């Protein structure tokens, strides 16, 4: 049973419990349930995991911490985290509290992860407070799970992540590679929320609450434990302004030069100039990630809507690399990939990051190069996107189908798209649905319906089956074309629009014929592979 679960054959493992063992009269023990509930938790099969948990209790077996860990993992990995996962995690948490069951660190971490991924960031933070109250040790791993929770809070996750980072420094915990990667992901994906609350981060100093040294448990102040973290900061700004200082930028290895990285313009931050020293013309930015927070010469913040602005607030790529070096953490390919997504959209800054990667010793992979091509294709810089192919050759990376799909995003003319498809054929690649969908989208952005019709013909000739997403896109285009044709008939044909209207009429005719001859590809149920053929789908 355990071997089947390791081989991702969950359906076969469940059959042993539900069919083979019952047919010979063998009663399952706690170990059987632990293995199966753990396997269901890893794939997010919440329904079966909780069914097995109920069966376990009915048989008089006492669930241990490993079972609760697996159940919360199932909630965290659920295909429907904000409904199914959250409801089950909330109910289980309530039952554990009512029964007075105290979880260990591993189970508590799984619970933080579950509520974080399911969008209940308040409960995730409260669980850390409960851990302190119960005398459990708060570690870097504990706060890493909180950083995961911050990522799910799209509106203010970046501010919450900075609060977690400040608490990590206050507890004298050293961040690891996972901490930095989660922080950079938060910079990329999450907003900062209320600008006034974000500005308070530049004015406050860490509160002198409990400290954790070695394996010593946190102390309880008075009759209750002070909250280790708060979602909203309520402290007043410090009256003492931290002195500004600039630390020399360095990378992981000694002797590496940080001048190779060109920082973006910090237009989002108002900075006072230091005129009394030799660095009078240099911006003195806040140091929010270091062991000792300093506000630099910042006098105010405006909106932090763009990832590049949030990246600038923490010192940009140079600031992140500097603190990673101080914490003896070497960036990996995921770190620079996340930073790439947060950089300003210009080739010069991207090239500077590539130079920094070379200095640090990070070797790019095909996925990173695909992301770079995608960025440049989105801003229609096709020549710069093609230059990445030469960059890939330097590292002996072979372009794959995803690489070509990213290049397809930059072709907005019929002539270029047809040549691109011919080049794919010559290289031995077959266009897939994602590539054809990108080309169809590009044609509709240009409102070139001749282009659209040609792409539909290509799909028909290549036997590429459309999915629901592409059909929805084409249906919206059909409605727009029909409305414009009706409007032109009421207002009279415009000579300038005559060719475009002709293309719309051709599209409506050919799209109808194409749709009749096409079958639609429907997505599989997330749990289909774990269910028997006779089982009713959810």
From TrEMBL:
InterPro entries reported in the protein's UniProt record: PPR_rpt, TPR-like_helical_dom_sf
Presence of the UniProt keyword Repeat in the record: yes
Pfam families reported for this sequence: PPR (PF01535), PPR_2 (PF13041), PPR_3 (PF13812)
Keywords: Repeat
Region called Disordered, residue ranges: 206-227
PPR repeats: 1-28, 29-63, 104-138
PANTHER family the record matches: OS03G0856100 PROTEIN, PENTACOTRIPEPTIDE-REPEAT REGION OF PRORP DOMAIN-CONTAINING PROTEIN
Protein name as catalogued: Putative pentatricopeptide repeat-containing protein 1, mitochondrial
Native source organism of the sequence: Penaeus vannamei
């Amino acid at each position: 049973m355990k071997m089947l679960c390791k081989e991702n054959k969950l359906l076969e493992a469940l059959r042993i419990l539900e069919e083979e063992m019952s047919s010979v009269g063998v009663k399952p023990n706690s170990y059987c349930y632990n293995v199966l509930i753990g396997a269901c938790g890893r794939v997010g099969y919440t329904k079966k995991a909780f069914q097995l948990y109920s069966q376990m209790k009915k048989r008089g077996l006492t669930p241990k911490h490993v079972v609760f860990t697996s159940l919360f993992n199932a909630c965290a990995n659920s295909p429907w985290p904000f409904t199914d996962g959250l409801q089950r995690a909330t109910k289980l948490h309530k039952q554990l509290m009512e029964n007075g069951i105290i979880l260990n660190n591993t189970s508590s971490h799984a619970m933080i992860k579950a509520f974080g991924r399911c969008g209940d960031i308040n409960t995730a933070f409260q669980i850390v407070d409960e851990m302190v109250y119960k005398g459990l040790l708060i570690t870097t791993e504990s706060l890493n799970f909180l950083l995961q929770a911050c990522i799910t809070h799209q509106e203010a996750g970046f501010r919450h992540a900075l609060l977690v980072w400040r608490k990590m420094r206050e507890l004298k915990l050293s961040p690891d590679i996972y901490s930095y990667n989660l922080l950079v992901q938060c910079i990329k994906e999450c907003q900062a929320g209320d600008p006034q609350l974000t500005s308070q981060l530049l004015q406050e100093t860490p509160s002198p609450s409990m400290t954790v040294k070695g394996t010593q448990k946190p102390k309880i102040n008075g009759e209750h434990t002070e909250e280790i973290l708060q979602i909203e900061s309520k402290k007043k700004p410090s009256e003492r302004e931290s002195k500004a200082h600039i630390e020399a930028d360095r990378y992981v290895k000694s002797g590496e030069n940080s001048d190779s990285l060109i920082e973006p313009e910090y237009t989002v931050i108002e900075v006072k100039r230091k005129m009394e020293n030799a660095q009078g013309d240099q911006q003195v930015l806040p140091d929010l990630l270091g062991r000792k927070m300093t506000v630099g010469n910042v006098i105010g913040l405006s909106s932090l809507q763009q990832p590049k602005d949030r990246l600038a607030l923490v010192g940009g790529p140079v600031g992140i690399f500097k603190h990673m070096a101080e914490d003896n953490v070497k960036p990996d390919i995921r770190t620079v990939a996340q930073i790439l997504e947060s950089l300003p959209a210009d080739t010069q800054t991207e090239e500077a990051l590539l130079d920094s990667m070379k200095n640090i010793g990070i070797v790019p992979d095909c996925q990173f190069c695909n992301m770079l091509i995608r960025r440049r294709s989105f801003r229609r810089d096709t020549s710069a996107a093609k230059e990445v192919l030469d960059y890939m050759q330097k590292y002996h990376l072979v372009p794959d189908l995803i690489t070509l799909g990213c290049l397809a995003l930059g072709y907005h003319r019929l002539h270029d798209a047809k040549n691109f498809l011919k080049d794919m054929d010559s290289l031995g690649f077959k266009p897939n649905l994602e590539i054809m969908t990108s080309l169809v989208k590009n044609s509709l952005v240009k409102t070139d319906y001749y282009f659209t019709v040609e792409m539909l013909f290509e799909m028909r000739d290549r036997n590429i089956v459309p999915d629901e997403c592409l059909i929805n896109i084409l249906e919206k285009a059909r409605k727009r074309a029909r409305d414009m044709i009706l409007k032109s008939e009421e207002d009279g044909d415009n000579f300038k629009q005559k060719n475009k209207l002709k293309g719309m009429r051709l599209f409506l005719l050919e799209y109808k014929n194409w749709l009749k001859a096409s079958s639609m590809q429907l997505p599989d149920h997330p749990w289909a592979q774990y269910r028997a053929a006779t089982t009713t789908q959810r």
